[in-house]
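Structure, all two chains, one model.
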Amino acid sequence: MHADPKGVLTGVHFLDGDHSCCEGALAAGARFAAGYPITPSTEVVERFASRIPTVGGIFIQMEDELAASIAIQGAVWAGAKAFTVTSGPGFSLMMEHIGLAAMTETPCVFVDVQRGGPSTGLPTLPGQADMMQARWGSHGDYGIIALCPNSPQECFDLTIQAFNLSEEFRVPVMMMMDECVGHMTEKVVIPEPDQIEITPRRYTKLPPEEYRPFEPREDLVPDMARAGEGYRFHITGLTHDERGYPNMGVDAQDRLVRRLLAKLKPLSNGRSLCETDNLEDADVVVVSYGITSRVAQRAIQLARSRGIRAGKFRLITAWPFPTERIRELAGHVKAFVVPELNLGQMVLEVERAAAGQAKVIPVSHAGGTVHNPDTILNAIVEAAR
Amino acid sequence: MTPTTTLVIPDGAQNPVEPFLRMDRMPHIWCPACGIGTTVNCFTRALLDSKVNLDKVAVVSGIGCTGRVAGYARLDSFHTTHGRAIPFATGLKLANPELQVVVYSGDGDLFAIGGNHFIHAARRNMDLKVICVNNMTYAMTGGQSAPTTPAQAISATSPYGAFEPTFNLVALAEAAGASYVARWTTYHVKQLSRSMEEVLKRKGFCFIEVLSPCPTLYQRRNKMGDGLDAMKYYKQASKIRHGAPTGECTLSKSGEIVVGKFVDRDRPDYLELLRAQMTESLGERYIEPEASCSC
C-alpha cells in the first residue's frame, strides 16, 4: 500500500538527519511516539511533537527511557505504528524492552543517534560504539534488524524501511544513526505519497476462536491481532507456546527462540541492503557504515587516484550482518579495511565472515569526531602491499 | 448499596467466574490461601456488574505473583516486564482511548521497580485503573523485603527484621494526583467488588490497594498463621473510614488497617487536557488522534 498523505511532507527540503528521520516516521505511518530528552537525538521527537497534533496522533514525553520504550509497545498492540528515539545512555535503558519486543514479536522502531561512550561519554559528539549493543544488548537469544543511514536523505528513506521491515518480520528495528548524520543538514527529497511503499501490519483473518497469536505462517512470522476487537489474546514476555500461553518446557523454548532468529534469515543474505562500488577489480575493500562511510569514500577516491584497486562496501543493513556477501568477496580480495568510530565492533563480523580468506584491518577511532581520510588511506595502502 | 447482578453458573461450568478466565490454563500457580484469587473473583464480579463490554477491557500486569493475573483473565491481556505495566498501559490507552485499561500488579512491581511510572501516571491523571495486590513481600522470588514490608517483619532479605520505613501507598497515590483512591483487604470482598465496579465506570487515574495474605512466605516466616488467621486479623483490625486522611492510613505489621474510599475527585484526565491545550493553541488545525493506523 501507499503512504497516508496526511503524514507526507512532499517536496524538496533542507533538513538535518534528526528532522528527516521524523518525517520518515510520519510518512511510514507512525502515529505514536514516546520519548525522553537526550542529546543528540531529541530533535526527532521535538519535530514529532510539533507535527503530530495536525496529523492526528500522539506524542508523549515519558518519565524515562524504560517507560518510553514500552509505551510504544502498548500503542502497537492497540493498533498504532510507533517508535522511540534516544542516544547511548538511553539506549542502554531501553535494552529491557528491545528484548520484550523481540520476544513478543512487537513491530516497532528504536532510533539511536549514537554519541561517544561509555556511560555519559560525549553527549554532543559522534560515535558508532553501540553497534554490538544494538545486536546483543538485551539478555537471551533473539534477532533484530539494524539500519545505518549516512545522510539526511537516508534518514528519511531508511526510517520508512525500518517501519516496513518491522511489520514484515515483526521485530524491533534499530535506526543506528550517529551525531554527525543526525545533525548534518542537506537536501532531502520527500516524494509524493503514492511513490512511498508502506508495508501494512498483517492482521489475522481468522475468527477469534481459531486465532493462535504465535502460530507462524510459512515465513515463520505470525499474524497479529489488536486489542479491543474481541480476540481476547494473551501476550507475555515468558517463553510461550503458539497460543501465547507461558510454557516452561524445553521444547517450547527451543521452538520459539530458534524461530525468533530463523525468521530473519532472508535478510542476512540476498535481501540485505548495501551500497557497493568498484568491487569487480578490487584488491582492497573498505567496509564502513554511517558517517564513517563518507570519510571512507574520500579515502577510496585517493587510493584509486594512486592506482590502488580499492572498492567500497557500505553496510546499510548492519544486522543481520551480510555474512555471505562478505564471505564471497573474501574469496577474491586481498584485504578488508574496516574504519569505524569505535575500538573494533563490526570489524569482528567482517573477520568472522572472511574466515581467514582475506586480511581484515581495523581502523579504530574512540569517537568524538570523524576519521581523517588519510588514516583510512594509509590502511588501504598498507593492505594493498 | 448498588444492586448486584445474580451470578449465573453457565452450562458446563462449575463456577460463575469461569467465562472470565482462561480455564485451559487452570490450575493456576497461586498457593492455597493466597489472596490473589479472591481479588480476581471480585474483579470478575465487578466486570459483570459494571456491564462493560469485555471486548474493550484490557488487563496489563507486570511481574510477580499478581503479575500472573493478566495470564488468567480471558480478556486482551498483557504480561509485560517488571515494573513497567503502567507505561505499557499508557501506550495502549492513548493509541486506543476506547479501551478500558486495567493495570493489575503487586506492591513490589508497582512501587519499587515501577514506582516512578506510578507517580507519573497519577500526575498525568492517565485514564488507568490500577489494582495493587499488596502482600507486603516479593512472593514470586521467595519472600524478600518490599517497600511495603512493615518494620519488624522477617523476610528472606531481612532475616533479623525489616527496619526501612515503608511506603503508605494510598497517601502516595493521593499526593501524586490520583482521582480515586481506595483500600480494602481480601476479607472485604463485597466492598472490593464495588470499588472495582466504581472505577470501571469512572474516568481518570484510579488506585485500589488490596491487602492480601501470603501464607506461604510472609505469614509463615512471621508466625502469623494460615489464610484463615489472616482473615481473622483483617476482620478484627480493619476499620472502614471513608474519606480518612490518607496520611493517617499507614499500615503496620499487626496494627489497625484503615480501609475505605479515601479519595474521589474529578480532575480532567490526560486526553482531556491534551485536547483542551491543542484546541486552544491550534484551533481547527488540531486533528484528533486516530485510534490506530489506517493499515
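The mean pLDDT of chain A is 97.
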